[in-house]
Amino acid sequence: MSRPPHARESVLDAFEAILIDDGERSATLDATARAAGVSKGGLLYHFGSKEALEAGLIERLGRLVDVDIEAITTAPEGPVAYFLRSSAMQNDPLDRALIATSRLAQGGNAAASATVREVRLRWEDALRPHTKDATALDLVMLVSDGLYFNNALEGGSVPGPVPEGAAMDALIALVEGATKR
Amino acid sequence: MSRPPHARESVLDAFEAILIDDGERSATLDATARAAGVSKGGLLYHFGSKEALEAGLIERLGRLVDVDIEAITTAPEGPVAYFLRSSAMQNDPLDRALIATSRLAQGGNAAASATVREVRLRWEDALRPHTKDATALDLVMLVSDGLYFNNALEGGSVPGPVPEGAAMDALIALVEGATKR
DNA sequence: GTCTATATACAGATAGAC
DNA sequence: GTCTATCTGTATATAGAC
What we know:
The structure is a homodimer.
Chain A: H1 6-22, H2 29-36, H3 40-46, H4 50-74, H5 79-87, H6 93-106, H7 110-127, H8 134-154, H9 166-179
Helix pairs in contact in A: 1-2, 1-6, 2-3, 4-5, 4-6, 4-7, 5-8, 5-9, 6-7
The first copy, chain A, binds a DNA duplex through helix 3.
Protein backbone atom coordinates (compact mmCIF):
# COMPACT_ATOMS: atom_id res chain seq x y z
CA MET A 1 0.00 0.00 0.00
CA SER A 2 1.03 3.66 0.24
CA ARG A 3 4.15 3.65 2.37
CA PRO A 4 3.62 4.81 5.95
CA PRO A 5 5.08 8.19 7.09
CA HIS A 6 8.71 8.04 8.20
CA ALA A 7 7.98 9.24 11.74
CA ARG A 8 5.72 6.27 12.31
CA GLU A 9 8.46 3.91 11.20
CA SER A 10 11.08 5.55 13.46
CA VAL A 11 8.76 5.14 16.42
CA LEU A 12 8.21 1.48 15.57
CA ASP A 13 11.97 0.97 15.19
CA ALA A 14 12.57 2.49 18.62
CA PHE A 15 9.80 0.50 20.28
CA GLU A 16 11.13 -2.72 18.74
CA ALA A 17 14.69 -1.99 19.84
CA ILE A 18 13.72 -1.32 23.45
CA LEU A 19 11.57 -4.44 23.59
CA ILE A 20 14.49 -6.53 22.35
CA ASP A 21 17.26 -4.88 24.38
CA ASP A 22 15.54 -4.09 27.66
CA GLY A 23 12.28 -6.03 27.71
CA GLU A 24 8.61 -5.25 27.81
CA ARG A 25 8.69 -3.36 31.07
CA SER A 26 11.18 -0.81 29.78
CA ALA A 27 9.29 -0.26 26.55
CA THR A 28 7.24 2.66 27.83
CA LEU A 29 5.78 5.46 25.71
CA ASP A 30 8.26 7.83 27.33
CA ALA A 31 11.33 5.69 26.55
CA THR A 32 10.08 4.96 23.04
CA ALA A 33 9.44 8.62 22.28
CA ARG A 34 12.87 9.59 23.62
CA ALA A 35 14.63 6.91 21.54
CA ALA A 36 12.70 7.93 18.44
CA GLY A 37 13.57 11.60 18.97
CA VAL A 38 10.00 12.80 19.43
CA SER A 39 7.93 13.85 22.42
CA LYS A 40 5.34 11.64 24.05
CA GLY A 41 2.63 13.84 22.59
CA GLY A 42 4.19 13.50 19.16
CA LEU A 43 4.24 9.75 19.48
CA LEU A 44 0.60 9.70 20.55
CA TYR A 45 -0.35 11.59 17.45
CA HIS A 46 0.79 8.67 15.32
CA PHE A 47 -0.29 5.91 17.68
CA GLY A 48 -3.26 6.94 19.78
CA SER A 49 -2.51 4.54 22.60
CA LYS A 50 -0.03 1.96 23.84
CA GLU A 51 -2.28 -0.70 22.38
CA ALA A 52 -2.19 1.00 18.97
CA LEU A 53 1.60 1.09 19.13
CA GLU A 54 1.70 -2.62 19.89
CA ALA A 55 -0.73 -3.29 17.05
CA GLY A 56 1.57 -1.35 14.72
CA LEU A 57 4.45 -3.64 15.55
CA ILE A 58 2.31 -6.75 15.08
CA GLU A 59 1.22 -5.47 11.69
CA ARG A 60 4.82 -4.87 10.66
CA LEU A 61 5.63 -8.48 11.55
CA GLY A 62 2.80 -9.68 9.33
CA ARG A 63 4.11 -7.71 6.36
CA LEU A 64 7.64 -9.06 6.82
CA VAL A 65 6.42 -12.64 7.06
CA ASP A 66 4.63 -12.31 3.73
CA VAL A 67 7.97 -11.54 2.10
CA ASP A 68 9.75 -14.29 4.03
CA ILE A 69 7.33 -17.04 3.00
CA GLU A 70 8.04 -16.17 -0.61
CA ALA A 71 11.81 -16.27 0.03
CA ILE A 72 11.56 -19.66 1.76
CA THR A 73 9.77 -21.35 -1.09
CA THR A 74 12.15 -20.03 -3.73
CA ALA A 75 15.49 -20.33 -1.87
CA PRO A 76 18.24 -21.82 -4.07
CA GLU A 77 19.84 -23.82 -1.21
CA GLY A 78 16.43 -25.33 -0.40
CA PRO A 79 13.61 -24.29 1.95
CA VAL A 80 14.80 -26.14 5.07
CA ALA A 81 18.40 -24.89 4.91
CA TYR A 82 17.26 -21.35 4.18
CA PHE A 83 14.72 -21.46 6.97
CA LEU A 84 17.18 -22.68 9.62
CA ARG A 85 19.89 -20.29 8.56
CA SER A 86 17.52 -17.32 8.71
CA SER A 87 16.25 -18.45 12.12
CA ALA A 88 19.68 -17.71 13.54
CA MET A 89 19.95 -14.20 12.14
CA GLN A 90 19.87 -11.57 14.80
CA ASN A 91 19.57 -8.30 12.99
CA ASP A 92 17.31 -9.17 10.15
CA PRO A 93 14.21 -6.93 10.27
CA LEU A 94 11.95 -9.98 10.37
CA ASP A 95 13.79 -11.57 13.26
CA ARG A 96 13.73 -8.34 15.22
CA ALA A 97 10.00 -7.92 14.65
CA LEU A 98 9.37 -11.52 15.69
CA ILE A 99 11.41 -11.33 18.88
CA ALA A 100 9.84 -8.02 19.84
CA THR A 101 6.36 -9.39 19.17
CA SER A 102 7.18 -12.48 21.26
CA ARG A 103 7.97 -10.14 24.14
CA LEU A 104 4.52 -8.60 23.77
CA ALA A 105 2.99 -12.06 23.64
CA GLN A 106 4.71 -13.02 26.86
CA GLY A 107 3.41 -9.82 28.41
CA GLY A 108 -0.14 -10.97 27.82
CA ASN A 109 -0.98 -9.28 24.51
CA ALA A 110 -3.45 -11.71 22.96
CA ALA A 111 -3.11 -10.38 19.41
CA ALA A 112 0.66 -10.81 19.64
CA SER A 113 0.27 -14.42 20.82
CA ALA A 114 -2.15 -15.19 18.02
CA THR A 115 0.16 -13.66 15.42
CA VAL A 116 3.25 -15.51 16.64
CA ARG A 117 1.31 -18.75 16.55
CA GLU A 118 -0.02 -17.95 13.08
CA VAL A 119 3.47 -17.13 11.78
CA ARG A 120 4.65 -20.51 13.01
CA LEU A 121 1.77 -22.22 11.19
CA ARG A 122 2.57 -20.41 7.94
CA TRP A 123 6.19 -21.56 8.17
CA GLU A 124 5.02 -25.11 8.84
CA ASP A 125 2.81 -25.03 5.75
CA ALA A 126 5.69 -23.75 3.63
CA LEU A 127 8.06 -26.47 4.86
CA ARG A 128 5.68 -29.43 4.97
CA PRO A 129 6.14 -30.38 1.31
CA HIS A 130 9.90 -30.49 1.87
CA THR A 131 9.99 -32.79 4.92
CA LYS A 132 9.40 -36.50 4.86
CA ASP A 133 6.75 -36.76 7.58
CA ALA A 134 5.13 -34.96 10.52
CA THR A 135 7.91 -35.91 12.92
CA ALA A 136 10.56 -34.53 10.60
CA LEU A 137 8.59 -31.29 10.33
CA ASP A 138 8.35 -31.12 14.13
CA LEU A 139 12.11 -31.47 14.34
CA VAL A 140 12.82 -28.68 11.87
CA MET A 141 10.36 -26.36 13.57
CA LEU A 142 11.71 -27.04 17.05
CA VAL A 143 15.31 -26.43 15.99
CA SER A 144 14.19 -23.14 14.49
CA ASP A 145 12.30 -22.26 17.68
CA GLY A 146 15.43 -23.09 19.65
CA LEU A 147 17.52 -20.74 17.53
CA TYR A 148 14.99 -17.94 18.04
CA PHE A 149 14.78 -18.62 21.74
CA ASN A 150 18.51 -18.24 22.15
CA ASN A 151 18.57 -15.05 20.13
CA ALA A 152 15.70 -13.69 22.18
CA LEU A 153 17.42 -14.46 25.47
CA GLU A 154 20.46 -12.36 24.80
CA GLY A 155 18.66 -9.50 23.16
CA GLY A 156 21.48 -9.09 20.72
CA SER A 157 24.16 -8.09 23.23
CA VAL A 158 26.02 -11.24 24.32
CA PRO A 159 26.95 -13.78 21.64
CA GLY A 160 24.68 -16.70 22.51
CA PRO A 161 25.17 -20.41 22.05
CA VAL A 162 23.77 -20.33 18.54
CA PRO A 163 25.93 -22.25 16.05
CA GLU A 164 27.68 -20.07 13.49
CA GLY A 165 29.67 -20.63 10.31
CA ALA A 166 30.83 -24.24 9.91
CA ALA A 167 28.89 -25.34 13.01
CA MET A 168 25.69 -24.06 11.44
CA ASP A 169 26.47 -25.81 8.15
CA ALA A 170 26.99 -29.06 10.04
CA LEU A 171 23.75 -28.62 11.95
CA ILE A 172 21.81 -27.97 8.75
CA ALA A 173 23.33 -31.08 7.16
CA LEU A 174 22.38 -33.18 10.17
CA VAL A 175 18.81 -31.89 10.24
CA GLU A 176 18.41 -32.27 6.49
CA GLY A 177 19.74 -35.82 6.64
CA ALA A 178 17.13 -36.70 9.24
CA THR A 179 14.21 -34.85 7.69
CA LYS A 180 14.51 -34.33 3.94
CA ARG A 181 11.79 -35.69 1.71
CA MET B 1 20.15 -26.32 54.00
CA SER B 2 17.53 -25.83 56.73
CA ARG B 3 14.28 -25.62 54.78
CA PRO B 4 13.00 -22.09 54.22
CA PRO B 5 9.85 -20.87 56.05
CA HIS B 6 6.59 -21.77 54.28
CA ALA B 7 5.49 -18.14 53.80
CA ARG B 8 8.62 -17.47 51.75
CA GLU B 9 7.84 -20.43 49.52
CA SER B 10 4.21 -19.37 49.00
CA VAL B 11 5.40 -15.95 47.93
CA LEU B 12 7.87 -17.48 45.48
CA ASP B 13 5.13 -19.79 44.12
CA ALA B 14 2.85 -16.80 43.55
CA PHE B 15 5.57 -14.70 41.92
CA GLU B 16 6.50 -17.58 39.62
CA ALA B 17 2.87 -18.20 38.63
CA ILE B 18 2.24 -14.56 37.74
CA LEU B 19 5.46 -14.35 35.73
CA ILE B 20 4.44 -17.42 33.73
CA ASP B 21 0.75 -16.60 33.29
CA ASP B 22 0.77 -12.83 32.87
CA GLY B 23 4.38 -11.79 32.22
CA GLU B 24 7.00 -9.68 33.92
CA ARG B 25 5.01 -6.49 33.87
CA SER B 26 2.13 -7.98 35.85
CA ALA B 27 4.42 -9.56 38.43
CA THR B 28 4.30 -6.62 40.85
CA LEU B 29 4.81 -6.81 44.59
CA ASP B 30 1.14 -5.98 45.02
CA ALA B 31 -0.11 -8.74 42.72
CA THR B 32 2.35 -11.24 44.19
CA ALA B 33 1.34 -10.43 47.76
CA ARG B 34 -2.34 -10.71 46.90
CA ALA B 35 -1.86 -14.07 45.16
CA ALA B 36 0.20 -15.37 48.08
CA GLY B 37 -2.41 -14.25 50.57
CA VAL B 38 -0.23 -11.77 52.42
CA SER B 39 0.02 -8.00 52.48
CA LYS B 40 2.68 -6.08 50.65
CA GLY B 41 4.34 -5.29 53.98
CA GLY B 42 4.31 -8.95 54.90
CA LEU B 43 5.96 -9.86 51.60
CA LEU B 44 8.62 -7.22 52.12
CA TYR B 45 9.49 -8.70 55.47
CA HIS B 46 10.60 -11.91 53.73
CA PHE B 47 12.06 -10.27 50.64
CA GLY B 48 13.38 -6.81 51.38
CA SER B 49 13.04 -5.59 47.79
CA LYS B 50 11.85 -6.57 44.35
CA GLU B 51 15.42 -7.50 43.54
CA ALA B 52 15.60 -9.82 46.55
CA LEU B 53 12.39 -11.49 45.42
CA GLU B 54 13.85 -12.05 41.97
CA ALA B 55 17.04 -13.40 43.52
CA GLY B 56 14.94 -15.83 45.56
CA LEU B 57 13.40 -17.24 42.39
CA ILE B 58 16.78 -17.54 40.69
CA GLU B 59 18.12 -19.42 43.72
CA ARG B 60 15.18 -21.80 43.61
CA LEU B 61 15.98 -22.56 39.98
CA GLY B 62 19.56 -23.40 40.92
CA ARG B 63 18.43 -25.88 43.58
CA LEU B 64 16.02 -27.60 41.19
CA VAL B 65 18.67 -27.92 38.48
CA ASP B 66 21.00 -29.69 40.91
CA VAL B 67 18.36 -32.38 41.33
CA ASP B 68 17.62 -32.52 37.59
CA ILE B 69 21.24 -33.03 36.54
CA GLU B 70 21.35 -36.06 38.81
CA ALA B 71 18.09 -37.37 37.29
CA ILE B 72 19.38 -36.90 33.74
CA THR B 73 22.55 -38.89 34.25
CA THR B 74 20.75 -41.81 35.91
CA ALA B 75 17.57 -41.96 33.77
CA PRO B 76 16.69 -45.56 32.78
CA GLU B 77 15.46 -44.60 29.25
CA GLY B 78 18.76 -42.76 28.67
CA PRO B 79 19.85 -39.14 29.22
CA VAL B 80 18.80 -37.72 25.84
CA ALA B 81 15.31 -39.21 25.87
CA TYR B 82 14.76 -38.17 29.47
CA PHE B 83 16.06 -34.69 28.80
CA LEU B 84 13.82 -34.07 25.78
CA ARG B 85 10.75 -35.52 27.45
CA SER B 86 11.24 -33.36 30.51
CA SER B 87 11.80 -30.28 28.33
CA ALA B 88 8.19 -30.53 27.22
CA MET B 89 6.73 -30.76 30.72
CA GLN B 90 4.72 -27.72 31.61
CA ASN B 91 3.96 -28.09 35.27
CA ASP B 92 7.11 -29.59 36.60
CA PRO B 93 8.56 -27.30 39.32
CA LEU B 94 11.86 -27.07 37.42
CA ASP B 95 10.23 -26.07 34.17
CA ARG B 96 8.12 -23.45 35.89
CA ALA B 97 11.16 -21.98 37.64
CA LEU B 98 13.07 -21.91 34.37
CA ILE B 99 10.33 -20.24 32.38
CA ALA B 100 9.75 -17.67 35.12
CA THR B 101 13.48 -16.95 35.35
CA SER B 102 13.64 -16.58 31.56
CA ARG B 103 11.01 -13.88 31.85
CA LEU B 104 13.19 -12.04 34.33
CA ALA B 105 16.16 -12.46 32.01
CA GLN B 106 14.22 -10.95 29.15
CA GLY B 107 13.29 -8.06 31.41
CA GLY B 108 16.94 -7.19 31.81
CA ASN B 109 17.81 -8.97 35.07
CA ALA B 110 21.50 -9.82 34.55
CA ALA B 111 21.65 -12.48 37.26
CA ALA B 112 18.69 -14.24 35.67
CA SER B 113 20.38 -14.19 32.24
CA ALA B 114 23.58 -15.56 33.68
CA THR B 115 21.74 -18.34 35.50
CA VAL B 116 19.72 -19.40 32.47
CA ARG B 117 22.91 -19.53 30.41
CA GLU B 118 24.66 -21.49 33.14
CA VAL B 119 21.80 -23.99 33.40
CA ARG B 120 22.08 -24.61 29.68
CA LEU B 121 25.83 -25.23 30.00
CA ARG B 122 25.28 -27.71 32.83
CA TRP B 123 22.79 -29.61 30.68
CA GLU B 124 25.24 -29.61 27.79
CA ASP B 125 27.94 -31.04 30.03
CA ALA B 126 25.63 -33.78 31.25
CA LEU B 127 24.59 -34.75 27.71
CA ARG B 128 27.93 -34.41 25.93
CA PRO B 129 29.13 -37.95 26.77
CA HIS B 130 25.91 -39.34 25.31
CA THR B 131 26.00 -37.58 21.93
CA LYS B 132 28.29 -38.48 19.05
CA ASP B 133 29.76 -35.04 18.34
CA ALA B 134 29.34 -31.30 18.86
CA THR B 135 26.77 -30.97 16.09
CA ALA B 136 24.66 -33.74 17.57
CA LEU B 137 24.79 -32.00 20.95
CA ASP B 138 23.75 -28.70 19.32
CA LEU B 139 20.76 -30.45 17.79
CA VAL B 140 19.60 -31.97 21.08
CA MET B 141 19.99 -28.66 22.91
CA LEU B 142 18.15 -26.69 20.24
CA VAL B 143 15.21 -29.10 20.17
CA SER B 144 15.02 -28.79 23.95
CA ASP B 145 15.18 -24.98 23.69
CA GLY B 146 12.40 -25.12 21.12
CA LEU B 147 10.21 -27.16 23.46
CA TYR B 148 10.78 -24.65 26.26
CA PHE B 149 10.16 -21.72 23.96
CA ASN B 150 6.78 -23.06 22.97
CA ASN B 151 5.82 -23.76 26.55
CA ALA B 152 6.93 -20.29 27.54
CA LEU B 153 4.90 -18.62 24.79
CA GLU B 154 1.59 -19.99 25.91
CA GLY B 155 2.16 -19.59 29.60
CA GLY B 156 0.38 -22.85 30.29
CA SER B 157 -3.03 -21.72 29.07
CA VAL B 158 -3.41 -22.66 25.40
CA PRO B 159 -2.20 -26.11 24.31
CA GLY B 160 0.84 -25.23 22.18
CA PRO B 161 2.38 -27.00 19.22
CA VAL B 162 4.55 -29.20 21.45
CA PRO B 163 4.41 -32.87 20.40
CA GLU B 164 2.71 -35.15 22.92
CA GLY B 165 2.33 -38.90 23.38
CA ALA B 166 3.20 -40.89 20.24
CA ALA B 167 4.39 -37.75 18.42
CA MET B 168 6.89 -37.09 21.20
CA ASP B 169 8.08 -40.72 21.11
CA ALA B 170 8.64 -40.42 17.37
CA LEU B 171 10.53 -37.15 17.79
CA ILE B 172 12.79 -38.65 20.45
CA ALA B 173 13.49 -41.64 18.22
CA LEU B 174 14.39 -39.35 15.32
CA VAL B 175 16.69 -37.18 17.42
CA GLU B 176 18.35 -40.19 19.04
CA GLY B 177 18.90 -41.80 15.66
CA ALA B 178 20.70 -38.69 14.47
CA THR B 179 22.67 -37.96 17.61
CA LYS B 180 23.29 -41.04 19.78
CA ARG B 181 26.90 -41.97 20.55
C1' DG C 1 5.97 -11.81 61.54
C1' DT C 2 2.32 -9.34 59.55
C1' DC C 3 -0.36 -5.36 59.08
C1' DT C 4 -1.92 -0.16 57.49
C1' DA C 5 -0.59 4.23 55.99
C1' DT C 6 2.17 7.02 53.45
C1' DA C 7 6.16 8.96 50.48
C1' DT C 8 8.02 9.25 45.95
C1' DA C 9 8.46 8.11 41.19
C1' DC C 10 6.73 7.05 36.90
C1' DA C 11 3.22 4.90 33.84
C1' DG C 12 -0.53 5.97 30.15
C1' DA C 13 -3.41 9.43 28.48
C1' DT C 14 -5.74 14.20 27.61
C1' DA C 15 -5.90 19.29 26.49
C1' DG C 16 -4.62 22.78 24.14
C1' DA C 17 -0.67 25.96 22.34
C1' DC C 18 2.15 26.50 18.25
C1' DG D 1 2.32 17.29 12.94
C1' DT D 2 4.71 18.12 17.13
C1' DC D 3 5.16 20.29 21.41
C1' DT D 4 4.40 21.29 26.90
C1' DA D 5 1.59 20.88 30.81
C1' DT D 6 -1.23 18.28 33.51
C1' DC D 7 -4.52 14.55 35.30
C1' DT D 8 -4.97 9.96 37.27
C1' DG D 9 -3.55 5.50 38.43
C1' DT D 10 -0.23 2.45 40.17
C1' DA D 11 4.69 0.89 41.15
C1' DT D 12 8.41 0.30 44.73
C1' DA D 13 9.66 1.26 49.19
C1' DT D 14 9.56 3.11 54.13
C1' DA D 15 7.61 3.90 58.88
C1' DG D 16 5.67 2.42 62.49
C1' DA D 17 1.45 0.06 64.90
C1' DC D 18 -0.02 -4.50 66.48
